[in-house]
Amino acid sequence: MSARPPLENIRQINDAVRYAPVSARYKVYIIDEVHMMSGPAFNAFLKTLEEPPPHAKFIFATTEIRKVPVTVLSRCQRFDLRRIDAAVLVAYLARICAAEGVAADAEALQALARAAEGSARDALSLTDQAIAHAAGRITLEGVRTMLGLADRARIIDLFALVMGGDLAGALAELRGLYDAGADPGSVLTELAEFTHLVTRLKIVPAAASDSSLTQAERVRGGEFAAQLSVRALSRTWQMLLKAIAEVKDANRPLPAAEMALVRLVHAADLPTPDDAVRMLQAAPQGGAGAATRPAGGSIAGSGPAAAMTQGAYSRTSGAANPSPRAAAPQTAPQPAAPAALVIATLEDIVAMAARHRDIKLQTAIQRDLRLVSIKPGRLQVALAETGSRGIANELSGKLKEWTGQTWLVDMVQAEGQATLREQKQAAERERKETAATHPAVKALMTAFPGARIVDVHSRSAVEASGHLEAALDDMDAGLAASLESGEGLYDTDGDPYSDIEF
After folding, report:
1. What is the C-alpha separation between 59 and 79, in angstroms, rounded?
2. Which of 120, 147, 174 is the C-terminal boundary of a domain?
3. Which of 60, 127, 178, 264 can pair with 34 through a Cys bridge, CB separation 3.0 to 4.6 Å?
4. With the CA atoms of 136, 141, 146 and 148 taken in that order, what torsion angle do they form, in degrees rounded to the nearest 10?
């Protein structure tokens, strides 16, 4: 059948399927890319699928199973075909080349298998093209030229230059690959693939035994895996994914790829947030010398890879979090309310709404109510411009439900206190202003031009909670996004950092 059988073809199948085969046991109908059939064609086929003749067999092939109507899927037995391992594909292509009398280098077949991404059909098509392109022996250089790929060894060199913070060397290497015929988007894609390989080797060292890997990938990838942190690799992966999309959409791919390397190298040259904290703690009260940025590639050792140890290429938030002495005093956590509920402040009502998981009312109280007075059984509040007068009745009913007492909630025309949200924002501004006067913070802001104070918290509170590592991981993901956008530091939800504490 054709790749997209029209309605008329389906009608022909319905007419012919009723007759038994002449010289075989079964009639087998194979429809490729079945998801491309039209709705009327599927409807015309349903009757035959519901009651197929015993001598008829139907095989449907598709790569878009979700586009096949459920009425058809329910009448079929489904077999999901897995991607073929690269090592199996290499052996398969080698047998085909031997049978066809075509000489092929092992590394060339590995490149073809990698480009096929587990599809035997794509591997055969690419091999056929390689045979025609080579007009003789299939070589790695010929496959690279055909597919627009970069030299794998040079990709590894580029990776080392980027992680070592050598921007001039990285740009020169990219230009060399481009002049050799490599597509800039393909260079970044292969750079991302090698980043993924290094991450796999770090987490699963046994992955080095994969026969589809070249000797350079196996040896040098293992060296990088021993030296790089998962955080740095994860950040590099995130930045490369965004850069690949940018290069594809750019009118001038090479400059877009170069700017991506600039961002990557800039990130590689920054210290980690915990290193920055240690620098702050080690800095004298009035000296800025201890808070200077370490030079990329200045770590003991030789070669670009030497700069990839001791955090020279990792992350920094640009957010200043001084020692607890510089932070505004914070109130110690209050003990839980006793059994007899006491409501003396608006914060008590917010806490009660939080305990009862009424997030909508909790948010409305914090945002829309200005406290005028509060007494047992009576609450007087002024309404902010964003508030709804219906909140009074809702809050009165909730308080009676939660406390067992009748509460009268009055809306009055008075100034009232600032809303809880406004109070929180004012306190945050005050903490930042206080932190900005600390000598160590000034030194850090000087060492990192463009950095800004995002929030100030007590280090002891985070250490007590045991969430420092999780906070650093979140900061790492946010740093990658901030370096890509150039709009400051934001967390993975797109909000400015407000929960990263030291």
Report:
1. 10
2. 147
3. 60
4. 180
Q: At how many degrees (to 10) do helices 86-100 and 120-134 cross? A: 40
Count of Cβ atoms closer than 10 Å to residue 8 Cβ: 9
The span from the CA of 130 to the CA of 121, in Å, is 14
Is residue 24 within 8 A of residue 55, CB to CB? The reply is no
354 and 407 inside one domain: yes
Per-residue pLDDT band at 195 (split at 50, 70, 90): very high
Q: Are residues 304 and 444 in the same domain?
A: yes
Order of strands across the sheet that contains 408-411: 369-375, 378-383, 408-411
Q: Where is average pLDDT lowest: 27-41, 100-114, 290-304?
A: 290-304
Q: What is the per-residue pLDDT across 35-48, written as a single tens digit (0 to 9) for each?
A: 888 888 888 888 88
153: enclosing H helix or E strand: helix 152-163
pLDDT for res 272: 61
Domain that holds residue 136: 86-147
What domain count does the chain have? Answer: 5
Q: Give the predicted TM-score (pTM) of the model.
A: 0.44
pLDDT-derived band at 50 (thresholds 50, 70, 90) equals confident
Is residue 318 domain-shared with residue 447, that is, in the same domain?
Answer: yes
Q: Which of 282, 275, 232, 240 is nearest to 259 (CA)?
A: 240
Residue 499 inside a domain? The answer is: no
337 lies in a domain? no
Cβ-Cβ contacts under 8 Å for 245 (sequence gap 6 or more)? none
Question: Taking Cα atoms as reference points, which of 440, 464, 428, 426 lies closest to residue 323?
Answer: 440
Q: Between β-strands 56-60 and 369-375, what pairing exists: parallel, antiparallel or unpaired?
A: unpaired
Does 394 or 480 have the greater pLDDT score? 394
Q: Residue 264 contacts by C-beta under 8 Å, 6 or more apart in sequence?
A: 162, 170, 236, 239, 240, 243
Q: Measuring CA to CA, which residue among 446, 447, 441, 467 is closest to residue 322?
A: 441
Report the C-alpha gap between 76 and 165 in whole angstroms. 56
Q: Rg for the chain (alpha carbons), in Å?
A: 33
pLDDT in tens, 138-154: 888 788 777 766 677 88
Amino acid at residue number 387: G
